[in-house]
Amino acid sequence: MSDIPAFPYRLLWGERQVRPVVNLTRADGVEFLQLAERIPLRVQITPYPLERANFALADLRAGRLQGAAVLTLP
């Protein structure tokens, strides 16, 4: 097997940023929500149904998103 040639990742999909989702414990979630009650969080998301994931990627590439794109299930 040959090595995969190196190339800039931005050429693959054009994402501006990839953020992983981390598995946390229930206690972590409870602690976070208690903290969130005391801190004025301002979050901004744009929900997309899962079947429109390609539209979410297109909006991300074109810079039409403020905040995070979130894929939702029916």
Question: How would you sum up this structure, described in words?
Answer:
It is a single chain. By secondary structure, the protein is an alpha+beta fold. It has two helices and two strands. The mean pLDDT is 84. A two-stranded parallel ribbon has the order 1-2. The longest helix is centred in the middle third of the chain and has 13 residues. 1% of the residues are buried.
The portion of residues assigned to helices is 25-40%
Order of helices and strands: HEHE
Number of domains: 1
Mean pLDDT: 84
Distance between the termini: 42 Å
Sheet with most strands: strand arrangement: 1-2
Kindly provide the radius of gyration, computed on alpha-carbon positions and rounded to a whole number of angstroms: 17 Å
Strand content: 5-15%
Q: Summed up, what is this model?
A:
The chain is α+β, with helices and mostly antiparallel strands. The chain has helices at residues 26-38, 53-62, and strands spanning 45-49, 68-72. Strand 1, helix 2 and strand 2 (68-72) form a beta-alpha-beta unit.
